[in-house]
C-alpha cells in the first residue's frame, strides 16, 4: 500500500496552519485510517488522520452495523464531543476536512511504554474511565446513532456476532474446529443466564495502552471512533486483556456478562487478525501473535 507524501497533504497543511509542508511520516498503527505526522517549514508538527479507501488494510467484508464500521470522520467527531463532555482528554482539533482531520501533535509517549513507572497517569486513566462509564443512555450504540429502545438486547447482539466469529475461526483454525460444539454450547449457556439491563455506559471500545498518550501527566485517548454506549463489562474485559497486571478491577460488574464477553472477545481477537492478514497489512508477525495467543485463550475459556 502506497503512503501519502508531501504533495498529497500540502493543501491540508496550508489550510490547517497557513504554512508550507516540509515532511510527512506515516505513523505506526491504523488499520482503517492513515495517521501521518506533518512537519511544517518552521519545524512545528501536527497529526493528520486520513480516511480513504487506500488507507484501509481490511479486506472487503460484510460488516455488522454496530461494530463493523468503527471508522470515519463523522464517528471521530461525535466520539470527540462525547469524550470531551465526559471530561476525558482527547487531542485538540485543528482542521476538519472532508476525509481528513488534523489534530495537535502532543509529542507524547504511549502509556504502554510507561506502565511500569508512571502510576499517576495510570490512576488518572482509571478515574477518567470511571467518569466515562457513569455517563449512561437507555439506548446503546454510537452517540450519534443510538439503537431504538426495542432493538435486540446487547447480549443478543454479541451472541450472534460471536457465533459468526466461531464459524469463521473453525474454517481457519483446526484446534478451534475440533472444539466447535463445546464452544457454541459455552456461548449459549453463558448468554442464557444474563439478566436484562436498561442503561448503558459510554465506552471507548478498544482501549489498550497503545491507544493512550500521556501528555503532561494526563492520559489522552486516541483511536476513538469506536466510542459508543454499551455494556461496560465489554470494555472491562478488553481492559483486563490489554493491561494485564496493571488492570484495576472495579466493583459492580455483572459476572455473567463478564464471563460471556470474555469468550466472545477472544473469538473476535482470533477472527479479526486472521482476516486482516488476508490483505496487505504490513505488521504481520504481530497479528499472528495476537491470533495465536487468543486461540489458546479460547480453548481454555
TrEMBL record:
The protein's superkingdom reads Bacteria
Coiled-coil intervals, chain numbering: none
Matching InterPro entries: Aminoglycoside_PTrfase, Kinase-like_dom_sf
Q: Which Pfam families match?
A: APH
**Positions of the Aminoglycoside phosphotransferase domain:** 76-229
Q: What is the protein named? A: Aminoglycoside phosphotransferase domain-containing protein
Species of origin? Lentzea waywayandensis
> Which lineage ranks, top first, belong to the organism behind this chain?
Bacteria, Bacillati, Actinomycetota, Actinomycetes, Pseudonocardiales
Amino acid at each position: 500500500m502506497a503512503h501519502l507524501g508531501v504533495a498529497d497533504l500540502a493543501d491540508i497543511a496550508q489550510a490547517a496552519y497557513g504554512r508550507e509542508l516540509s515532511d510527512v511520516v506515516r505513523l505506526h498503527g491504523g488499520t482503517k485510517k492513515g495517521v501521518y505526522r506533518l512537519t511544517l517549514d518552521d519545524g512545528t508538527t501536527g497529526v493528520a488522520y486520513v480516511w480513504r479507501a487506500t488507507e484501509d488494510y481490511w479486506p472487503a467484508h460484510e460488516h455488522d452495523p454496530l461494530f463493523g464500521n468503527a471508522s470515519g470522520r463523522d464517528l471521530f467527531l461525535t466520539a470527540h464531543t462525547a469524550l470531551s463532555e465526559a471530561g476525558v482528554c482527547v487531542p485538540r482539533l485543528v482542521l476538519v476536512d472532508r476525509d481528513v482531520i488534523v489534530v495537535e501533535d502532543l509529542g507524547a509517549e504511549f502509556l504502554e511504554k510507561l506502565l511500569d513507572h508512571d502510576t499517576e497517569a495510570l490512576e488518572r486513566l482509571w478515574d477518567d474511565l470511571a467518569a466515562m462509564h457513569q455517563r449512561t443512555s437507555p439506548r446503546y450504540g454510537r452517540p450519534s446513532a443510538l439503537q431504538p429502545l426495542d432493538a435486540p438486547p446487547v447480549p443478543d447482539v454479541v451472541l450472534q456476532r460471536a457465533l459468526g466469529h466461531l464459524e469463521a475461526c473453525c474454517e481457519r483454525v483446526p484446534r478451534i474446529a475440533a472444539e466447535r460444539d463445546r464452544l457454541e454450547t459455552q456461548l449459549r449457556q453463558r448468554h442464557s443466564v444474563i439478566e436484562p439491563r436498561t442503561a448503558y455506559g459510554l465506552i471507548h471500545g478498544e482501549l489498550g495502552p497503545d491507544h493512550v498518550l500521556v501528555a503532561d501527566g494526563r492520559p489522552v485517548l486516541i483511536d476513538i471512533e469506536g466510542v459508543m454506549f454499551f455494556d461496560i463489562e465489554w470494555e472491562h474485559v478488553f481492559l483486563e486483556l490489554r493491561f494485564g497486571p496493571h488492570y484495576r478491577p472495579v466493583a459492580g460488574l455483572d459476572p455473567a456478562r463478564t464471563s460471556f464477553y470474555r469468550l466472545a472477545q477472544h473469538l473476535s481477537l482470533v477472527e479479526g487478525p486472521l482476516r486482516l492478514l488476508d490483505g496487505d497489512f504490513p505488521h504481520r508477525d504481530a497479528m499472528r501473535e495476537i491470533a495465536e495467543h487468543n486461540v489458546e485463550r479460547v480453548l481454555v475459556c
